[in-house]
Specification:
TPR_rpt, cytoplasm, mainly alpha, 348 residues, 0% strand, Serine Threonine Protein Phosphatase 5, Tetratricopeptide repeat
Length: 348
């Protein structure tokens, strides 16, 4: 049995906040408590309030503010001599680094967070940090290196009955299965994640699971309307909770569904919307994926082959620099889709 989902990143006087609290509300409450802690000369409380502020900014796509706040939280925690709070600040910083495409930095910060969490006796932040490292490896496409870690974290979360972490692990493993063509097992995992999230009142996790289910329904079954319906349900949650990043990925997935259905003009519009959203929040991975969809849609709408080849080459270079190997392979498949492999070989 799983208990109700909780948000361990909301600490100190902010433990009353729910995993489903609006990020705008989290930011307001966190900022108020942070200022009070600073006035009262309580660095420990400032560190924990600052963590909530940093996370709200990050999830709202306000990366500059998030970067400033996690560092301030870490400094306050260090002043207080609180290893657990230092670990949480490093976890926030590592998660932000991954969001910004700084994957090597993300790995280093999350590794330090896991180490500090273990030294400080905080098994939750240790688990979240290891999960962050697993996710960093997964989005790079290094499934062999992090697959076992995902499975181990899933087993630990199931044993503790921790719904939110179980949902996260299931979704990560499901994504790897989906990307390697194991659609049935991927769908089963996304579906289980959705059921656990719904039972635990984890609306964020439920929205991500619905997005995964929509992807499988589209690519495996060709059921466009069911996929769009699932995405619409997830989008409602994203808007109500101000989940800016999740909403952008939802729009990108809607573009994927429309593209597969041959509805290229609609797909182009969705990819353009998602691209703007990712650029607004400085999220290069999402930006790269949306750009790929847009390039493919424009090619289907009659864009010149040379321009398509040029755009794909530029995007491949960007993804290579970031270290997104799976996304880089997607560019290669796009070349094959449009018969551009010979063009590439001649250019080389």
């Amino acid at each position: 049995m799983y208990g109700k989902a909780f948000a361990p990143e909301y600490q100190g006087s902010l433990t009353t906040l729910s995993v489903n609290s609006s990020l705008v509300d989290v930011l307001a409450a966190g900022t108020e408590q942070l200022r009070a802690a600073e006035r009262g000369g309580s660095p420990g409380e400032a560190a924990r309030a600052g963590l909530a502020v940093a996370e709200a900014h990050r999830r709202l796509g306000q990366v500059g503010e998030a970067d400033r706040e996690w560092k301030a939280s870490y400094r306050a925690a260090r002043t207080a001599g609180d290893l657990g709070a230092m670990a949480w600040a490093l976890w926030s910083g590592g998660t932000l680094a991954r969001q910004r495409g700084a994957l090597a930095l993300a790995w280093r910060l999350l590794g330090l967070a896991a180490e500090f969490g273990e030294r400080g006796g905080d098994i939750v932040v240790r688990g979240y940090s290891l999960a962050g490292m697993a996710e960093t490896g997964r989005i790079q496409g290094d499934y062999e290196a992090v697959g076992a870690l995902h499975e181990r974290l899933l087993a630990e979360a199931r044993k503790r009955g921790e719904a939110r972490h179980t949902v996260w692990a299931l979704e990560g493993i499901a994504q790897m299965h989906r990307n390697t063509g194991s659609y049935d097992s991927a769908y089963a995992m996304f579906q289980e994640a959705a059921e656990i999230a719904a039972g635990a009142d984890d609306r964020r996790g439920h929205a991500w699971a619905l997005r995964g289910m929509a992807d499988i329904v589209s690519v495996r079954d060709g059921d466009v309307e069911q996929a769009l319906e699932l995405l619409s349900g997830a989008e409602l949650t994203c808007r109500e909770m101000n989940l800016v990043s999740a909403l952008a990925y939802n729009h990108k997935m809607r573009g994927n569904v429309l593209y597969r259905a041959g509805r290229y003009e609609e797909a182009r519009a969705m990819y353009e919307q998602a691209l703007d959203e990712f650029r607004d929040m400085s999220e290069p991975r999402g930006e790269g994926l949306a750009r790929l969809g847009l390039i493919k849609s424009l090619a289907r709408l009659g864009r010149d082959r040379a321009r398509t080849d040029e755009d794909l080459s530029e995007l491949a270079d960007v993804l290579e620099r970031i270290g997104l190997r799976h996304a880089r392979r997607m560019v290669d498949r796009a070349r094959e889709e449009f018969g551009l492999t010979e063009v590439m070989e001649v250019a080389l």
